[in-house]
Every structure is written in structure tokens, then in C-alpha cells.
Specification:
85% helix, mainly alpha, Growth Hormone, Chain: A, globular
């Protein structure tokens, strides 16, 4: 709730004040609030679900976020144009029209509090303060999360921030075309995320997530070498769909593997390392692109993704197998995971 309120205030300031220092500060504060929301989400979902429903819950949550993002992109792009079509909007000018769009985004963010307030009856178990990090078993579970987060973050930072420039410079695509490419990729990813739990139930969450990640790598390499737009767009869609569809499966597995008092810290560490890796590599990627072109960052990212995926798989396969046996044992006893979630 605090994250939603702070984000809405920061968005409102950014829309209403023209001073550069205020805009930058508000953007920084909004980023902090978004991090608070992201870090709190996974532990909250884990603590109010059981292993039977957890993978489905994380996947639906992830897919809903993607679909909402697409809707927000569409609304944000259309609001200034629609306002310009009215006599008031035409007279007000471009600045006011864009402010309306930004303030609408702030209102949407603030309205999320209504959903949180609707869960007031959910019982929150107190988190015990322990020396969990002193436990060697806990450290063994944290290290693979940290390694995967930083490698994936570095790899993503090398290519993702420049995908729009990639299509614009290599294939001379318009902004409208690029917007369609990205929106359709999000929709495909949402669909794949909903299919993921079905496959995870058959093959295991870790096996399914690792397969998704590794299958995305040939498409990533294709993007670096491809000269035909249709093939590049197809590779972009398949890469984004497969790689991102693994995210809810990994998050669900990690939260299930962590003791309750380590879940928030594990989510925070992964978020910190992923974003830190992204920030550093995005700067380096600009230099790589200027020196070697767009192909090299794609190839480096493919190598980093492969190392991250395989390291996490071999580190967590024993843990995942134990969790899967426990889940199957619960189901054999008739425990379907619909226990009481309210006080």
C-alpha cells in the first residue's frame, strides 16, 4: 500500500512540475516505490498459497501484469491524440494533453490500493527474526538466485534497452511498427505464462523454466545475425515469449524453496542484482554497438543466459525434486491446497 501511494505521488509531481530537479527526483522516488511493490509481491503470494496452486498463482499474476502493461501503453498513446481531437484539448496545447495522460497513469496506480484494501481479512503471519543466513543450507539456496539474477540482468541490459533502435536502424521500422512488435510480444508472453503451469505440473517447474530459457537462445542469436525483417520479428517474439515465460516458474520455485523469513530478502537481492547488472551493462552495450554493431551484444547475452540457466538448474535440481515429491505426497493424501486464508 505504501509503495502504491508513493508511486502515485511521484507520478503526479512528475506530471505537474516542469523543474528538471523535481522531475528527476520524482522519477527516482517512483522507482523506489515500484521496487517496494515488486519485492513485496512474491513473498505475499507465497505466504497466502500452497504448493499446489502457487505456480498457477504466480503465472496468472505475471500474465495479468503483462496484459495491463499493454493496455496502459495503448491508453497512454491514445489519450493525447484523443484530447487533441476535442476543442478543449486543441486549445490547451500538447503540454496539457501529455499531463492528462501522466495523471491518468498516477490515478490508475493509486487505485490499486482498492484491491489491497479488499484483502484486509487476509491473515499475516509474523515474520520471526532469525540468523537464517548463518545456515549453510540457506546460503546454498541464496547463491544461485544471486548468480542467475546478475547474469540475466547483465545480459538483458546489453540488448533489451536497444531493441527499438535495433528495429529502427537495421530495418528502418517506424515507431508504430515497433510498438506493434512489442505489444504482440507481451500478449504472446502472457499466453505462454498461462500455459507454463500445465507443463510444470507434467515435467516440473525447474525443468520447464530451464527448457524455456534454453529454447529462447537460438532466437536470440538469430536476432544478431538476421537481415530479413519478418524473420527478425518472429525471432524477437519467440525469444521474448520463451525467456519471460520462465520468470513466474522460477519465482514460484524460489519462494517455495525459501523459508518464510528469507523470502523478502531473496526477492530484494534478486531485484537489486538484476537491476544493477542491467544498469552497468546498458552503458557498456552502447559502446559495444558503436564499435561492433548490434550482433555482438546478442551473442554475449546468449552466452550469459546459457550460463545463468544451467548454473541455476544444476544448483536447484535437488531442491526442486524434493519440493515436487512433497507436493505429490500432499496430493496423494487429498490435500488440495484450499486451506483457510482469512482470520
Amino acid at each position: 500500500m505504501l509503495g502504491a501511494v508513493i508511486e502515485a505521488i511521484a507520478f503526479t509531481l512528475r506530471a505537474g512540475v516542469l523543474h528538471p530537479a523535481v522531475i528527476l527526483t520524482a522519477s527516482f522516488v517512483a522507482g523506489m516505490a515500484q521496487s517496494a511493490l515488486a519485492i513485496a509481491a512474491a513473498p505475499f503470494l507465497s505466504e497466502h498459497s500452497t504448493s499446489r496452486e502457487r505456480t498457477h498463482l504466480f503465472s496468472v499474476f505475471f500474465a495479468t501484469e503483462l496484459v495491463a502493461s499493454v493496455c496502459g501503453d495503448l491508453i497512454g498513446g491514445w489519450v493525447p491524440s484523443l484530447a487533441n481531437a476535442t476543442a478543449w484539448g486543441a486549445a490547451a496545447g500538447a503540454l496539457v494533453r501529455y499531463r492528462v495522460a501522466l495523471l491518468l497513469g498516477a490515478a490508475c496506480g493509486l487505485s490499486s490500493i482498492l484491491a489491497v484494501l479488499a484483502m484486509r481479512g487476509v491473515a499475516e503471519s509474523p515474520i520471526r527474526k532469525t540468523r537464517a543466513f548463518a545456515d549453510p543450507a540457506a546460503r546454498r539456496r541464496i547463491l544461485p538466485i544471486a548468480v542467475e539474477a546478475v547474469l540475466i540482468g547483465v545480459g538483458a541490459g546489453l540488448v533489451i534497452p536497444f531493441m527499438n533502435l535495433y528495429f529502427a536502424t537495421r530495418f528502418a521500422c517506424s515507431s508504430a511498427q515497433i510498438g506493434v512488435f512489442f505489444s504482440f510480444a507481451q500478449i504472446l508472453t502472457a499466453c505462454a505464462a498461462l500455459v507454463g503451469p500445465v507443463l510444470a505440473r507434467r515435467f516440473g517447474a525447474l525443468n520447464t523454466a530451464t527448457a524455456f530459457q534454453l529454447l529462447s537462445l537460438p532466437f536470440l542469436v538469430t536476432l544478431g545475425a538476421e537481415k530479413h525483417l519478418a524473420v527478425a520479428v518472429g525471432a524477437f517474439w519467440f525469444r521474448a515469449t520463451l525467456m519471460q515465460a520462465s520468470t513466474p516458474l522460477i519465482n514460484s520455485l524460489v519462494m517455495e524453496a525459501m523459508p518464510p523469513d528469507l523470502r523478502a530478502r531473496a526477492a530484494s537481492l534478486a531485484n537489486l542484482l538484476w537491476n544493477g547488472g542491467w544498469a552497468l551493462s546498458a552503458t557498456a552495450s552502447g559502446i559495444l554497438i558503436q564499435t561492433f554493431g548490434y550482433a555482438v551484444p546478442f551473442y554475449v547475452t546468449a552466452v550469459l543466459y546459457a550460463i545463468a540457466s544451467l548454473f541455476f538448474f544444476f544448483s536447484y535440481r535437488g531442491i526442486a525434486a524434493d519440493l515436487r515429491r512433497a507436493q505429490l505426497s500432499e496430493e496423494a493424501k487429498g490435500l488440495r491446497g484450499e486451506g483457510p486464508l482469512t482470520e
